[in-house]
Specification:
The complex is a heterodimer of chains A (310) and B (275). In chain A, a hairpin with a 2-residue loop joins strand 8 and strand 9. In chain A, 33% of the residues lie in helices and 26% in strands. The longest helix of chain A has 16 residues, at 160-175. In chain A, strands 5-6-7-3-8-9 form a six-stranded mixed beta sheet, sandwiched between helices. In chain A, strands 11-12-10-13 form a four-stranded antiparallel beta sheet, with helices on one face. In chain A, helix 3 (90-100) crosses helix 4 (105-114) and helix 4 (105-114) crosses helix 5 (130-142). Chain A folds into two domains: 2-216, P-loop containing nucleotide triphosphate hydrolases (Rossmann fold); 218-291, Alpha-Beta Plaits (2-Layer Sandwich), CATH 3.30.70. Chain A is built from eleven helices and 13 strands. In chain B, helix 1 crosses helix 6, helix 4 (84-105) packs antiparallel against helix 6 (119-152) and helix 7 crosses helix 8. With 275 residues, chain B is mainly α. In chain B, 48% of the residues are buried. Chain B has one domain. Chain B contains eleven helices and no strands. The chains are: A alpha/beta (310), B mainly alpha (275). At the A-B interface, helix 2, helix 3, helix 4 and helix 6 of A face helix 1, helix 4 and helix 5 of B.
Chain lengths: 310, 275
């Protein structure tokens, strides 16, 4: 359980996070989304007590992170960027952290095996690829078997096999009843792993809802219509709530109507329809729409035609 | 590479992990692991030992070969401890690096997440680094003393361990180097960058004192001089200090004061600043 209560943080004149509040529940994967510079990493640093907020509080399992007697057993974190001495081996790095909590070598080796770094654990971390660094960071996060896991961009730099592994790991951790809070700028990635979303932009909360609600809330659910007599069909459909984006002379995306309504209208006017496909907004599109404000259609390669009410 | 295929079996849960919470003994063990597992430790302490033994031997050989042309302020003990003057650089730099390398690599974030109260990390660093430095420099100092005196015995110039002040000076040299390293650690904690920390150490210890001497009146300069780092710290490991210095332990106490103040300021800023 992570609670962020009305937190504000400035760095000099720049506001990184403004009056941000949300709660992250256990048992599910919660995605933390926002464009670059939105304040995701700052929020995570505030939760871990690395940075002090100007106002507001952050609680982990009911207490500020700093006040836990064994903080690594409460929250395991993969931080942004490398947080490892490059001259040290992965095994010694993890051992030094484990020792602060009285956790021994056996557990360090167990986590090294879990993330698949066994063969390189004795070599200097400076020689690691980005993906290996991410695996080490994940081992570090899980080192003390924490009930809350907070990962900043965990799939960054991983190969497809590694990405698949992280997805399963996150779901598994949630299934074990842990709180799993994962930041990402890859919406498609979150669609596959997260059940709940916290979206921020410019340091402020934009959305805090389930992935399903988030997609549904995006108003760009449209129907792809292909017809040899498309202009006639569009004329037949004209209404104040209907939007039309033409893609090809015989292909358009029509919003504001269901596929059934369009099909019925086509039948009533005896217009042949060659394609009628409901297109749900992807998480990516829903996210873009939310963070870019009023921009309803943002494809730059297609021509847009708004049908004005008759 | 391990692949977790079924969601509920992450393999993360382990019966073996039962943390008793953060204990200072654990933080000490952690800092020992950190210190012994990077090359800069071995390099810096190796260089310190090399200077201590190498320069001490060279110093004694030079006196031996030139005898009876020796400097008027020649002392057989100081001659064999000539290397301390260079070893103090290596140890001071290692003191700075012990903390600044954590900032430059980002390791400090991991360290402060593990010990969010932060200060135990600094105290553990100071204790471990101090103990290791003392444990390595003391034998080197005793060895070069014994070698040096046996070289000087050719002209019967040697002193022995039973000569008054010798044992205190040998221990004192190791203590001086240790505290120099701790001063570096304190400055590194305040400044957080390797270059800045080393510059500050060099400036305070080696650059500012001669400048003060140059700009102050002679009497004022004489008043201040005993309290400057090198004269204060030097009094503990020299056997015939010139008249204008503090007594060995008083001088050492003043030198410890430099390190203590730098560590105290370091502690305050470590607690207050964002990592």
């Amino acid at each position: 359980m992570i609670e962020v209560n009305n937190v504000t943080k400035h760095y000099g004149p720049t506001v990184a996070v403004r009056e941000l509040s949300f709660k992250i529940k256990p048992g599910i994967v919660t995605g933390f989304l926002g464009p670059n510079g939105a304040g995701k990493s700052t929020t995570m640093r505030l939760i871990l007590g690395l940075d002090a907020p100007d106002s507001g509080t952050t609680l982990v399992n009911g207490k500020p992170y700093v006040e836990h007697s064994a903080p690594l057993c409460e929250v395991g974190a993969l931080l942004e960027a490398r947080s490892v001495h490059t001259g040290r081996s992965a095994r010694n790095h993890l051992l030094a952290l484990a020792q602060t909590h009285g956790v021994g070598r056996a557990r360090v080796d167990e986590m090294i095996d879990l993330v698949g770094l066994h063969d390189v654990a004795s070599g200097r971390v400076g020689g690691f690829s980005l993906g290996m660094g991410q695996r080490l960071g994940i081992a570090q996060a899980l080192l003390c078997d924490p009930n809350t896991v907070m990962l900043d961009e965990p799939v960054n730099g991983l190969d497809p096999e590694g990405i698949q592994w992280v997805r399963n790991l996150l779901k598994g951790l949630a299934a074990e009843g842990r709180t799993v809070f994962v930041s990402s700028h890859l919406m498609s990635e979150m669609a596959l792993t997260a059940e709940h979303l916290v979206v921020i932009g410019k340091g402020e909360l934009i959305a805090d809802m389930s992935v399903a609600d988030f997609v549904a809330s995006a108003s760009s659910n449209v129907v792809r219509v292909r017809s040899p007599r498309l202009p006639e069909l569009i004329d037949a459909l004209k209404a104040p709530t209907v939007t039309v984006k033409s893609i090809e002379p015989s292909l358009a995306e029509i919003g504001g109507l269901t596929a059934e309504q369009i099909g019925d209208a086509a039948a009533a006017h005896s217009i042949a329809v060659h394609e009628l496909t409901p297109v749900q907004a992807s998480l990516e599109e829903a996210f873009m729409e939310l963070t870019q404000g009023a921009v309803q259609f943002h494809a730059s390669t297609t021509q847009e035609t708004e049908v004005t009410p008759a | 590479m391990s692949t977790t295929t079924v969601a509920p079996s992450t393999g993360v849960k382990s019966a073996g992990v039962q943390s008793p919470g953060i204990r200072f003994s654990g933080v000490l063990r952690s800092e020992w692991t950190k210190l012994r597992s990077v090359r800069s430790t071995i390099w810096s302490l190796g260089v310190a030992v090399f200077f201590l033994i190498g320069l001490g031997i060279v110093g004694c050989l030079v006196v031996e070969s030139r005898y009876p042309n020796v400097r008027h302020d020649f002392h057989p003990l100081s001659q064999s401890l000539a290397g301390v003057n260079l070893a103090q650089f290596a140890v001071g730099v290692l003191g700075v690096l012990t903390i600044t390398a954590e900032y430059s690599t980002g390791m400090i974030r991991s360290s402060m997440c593990a010990v969010p109260k932060r200060l135990p990390v600094l105290w553990a660093k100071a204790l471990v680094f101090g103990a290791v430095t003392f444990a390595i420099t003391l034998p080197a100092i005793v060895i070069v003393f014994l070698i040096g005196q046996s070289i000087l015995s050719g002209h019967d110039l040697q002193v022995s361990l039973s000569t008054p002040g010798v044992v205190r000076s040998l221990f004192g040299a190791a203590l001086f180097l240790t505290v120099m390293g701790l001063f570096g650690l304190g400055l590194g904690t305040i400044i957080r960058t390797t270059a800045g920390g080393i510059s500050a150490l060099v400036a305070i210890v080696f650059v500012i004192p001669p400048i003060l001497q140059a700009i102050l009146t002679t009497s004022l300069s004489n008043d201040i001089n005993p309290y400057l780092p090198l004269s204060a710290g030097g009094s503990i490991w020299t056997i015939n200090p010139d008249s204008n210095t503090l007594s060995p332990w008083a001088g050492f106490a003043v030198f410890c004061g430099y390190a203590a103040v730098s560590l105290a300021i370091g502690a305050v800023v470590l607690r207050k600043r964002d990592v």
